[in-house]
Amino acid sequence: MERLSGELAQMCAASETAMSDATEALLDVSLAAAERAIGSTDELDRAAAEWERSAFSLLALQSPVAYDLRFVVGGLRVVADVQRMGGLAVHVAKITRLRHPDHVVPEVVRDLFTRMGEVADRQAAESVETLRQLDPERAEALLHGDEAMDELHAELLATAQSEEWRYGVQAAVDLTLLGRFYERFCDHTVEIGRRVIWIETGVAPS
Amino acid sequence: MERLSGELAQMCAASETAMSDATEALLDVSLAAAERAIGSTDELDRAAAEWERSAFSLLALQSPVAYDLRFVVGGLRVVADVQRMGGLAVHVAKITRLRHPDHVVPEVVRDLFTRMGEVADRQAAESVETLRQLDPERAEALLHGDEAMDELHAELLATAQSEEWRYGVQAAVDLTLLGRFYERFCDHTVEIGRRVIWIETGVAPS
């Protein structure tokens, strides 16, 4: 069980690294960073499938109840969240690669994307610690981490849709997708927080 | 167990209806249809939470193994997919409501969205039947249903990003998000197919 908990944290750390690579790729127009993010997905998918198999064996052979059962059932959802976070990092990196050597992020929203990257990174790092410690108080803090991201995302859409937008439709479409990927990444960290609270307390946060 | 399987199909049918309402809202600029889609989410979330509780009780009290355990574990993932499909329908409906009484979909991509709505509806209807019958052959057919959607989605992005785009940035941003919501909706039906195959055969499709 301890091994399974450590593995969840490890997978989450891998998706944190993937997103931070993807953000670096985006802001520094770095193909190397993009390839790192894209290349990380196979290992994450493999680890997630392996985790599911272990969880299934544990359910079949040990018939856990109470806390242990919540950990396994909750963990199955967390694995899905973490895997999806890695997938979203890959989506971000692929847009950078598609447009390379052009910049995807115009100067006017560079600061916004820097902050979106920071929020994503902070939430992912907090998710890793929350999973490592299975700490419901840390998990509680995760629940509100998406608010900062939602504000940044709304600001991004408003900027791209404003009369003053000078960067054309292609850039606006790319940025809309990117914004959505960061927002969803963050949503999954909130879900991880909710699941850890449920595992630890038996009560789903409303 | 039969009850749980029927409930999965029922929830999936609810998300199918929500998406078909959302598509109607979008194409007919119908606020009533948008409100129907948006209003359906509470019941779906309640049913999904209830399903999870039943599955947890079943694991705790009956310690199922083999097929029965696969059904419950796979079902927990299917519930998440179905719930998310409902959420995506709500996102589509909310864009319609936000822009009402303006059209969101310009004439040039109306046919594209009609077809995206049809693919989403067909995949969702097939998912309902697959869940009702737990039929791995039906599930197999679901696996390729996202290809048609991916093509339509690529065509939409290419249209919005082309030199000939005459509908401005705001419309392009809205359509980018809408396209993404339809594409993700379809991805979840593929996931349902994969899960049903795993439940029935014990082997995850590659």
**Stretches with pLDDT under 50, minimum 5 residues of chain A:** none
Average pLDDT score of chain A: 96
Estimated share of beta-strand residues of chain A: under 5%
Identify the most extensive interface between protein chains. A-B, 27 and 27 residues
Oligomer: homodimer
What structural keywords apply?
Methane Monooxygenase Hydroxylase, Chain G, domain 1, PhoU (chains A, B), mainly alpha, homodimer, PhoU-like_sf (chains A, B), 0% strand, elongated, Phosphate transport system protein (chains A, B)
Protein model, in words:
2 copies of one chain form a homodimer. Chain A is mainly α and 206 residues long. Chain A has a single domain, classed as Methane Monooxygenase Hydroxylase, Chain G, domain 1 (Up-down Bundle), CATH 1.20.58. Helix content of chain A is 84%, strand content 0%. Chain A is built from 8 helices and no strands. In chain A, helix 1 (2-28) runs parallel beside helix 4 and helix 3 (41-62) runs antiparallel to helix 4 (66-99). The longest helix of chain A has 34 residues, at 66-99. The radius of gyration of chain A is 18 Å and the shape is elongated. The two termini of chain A are 27 Å apart.
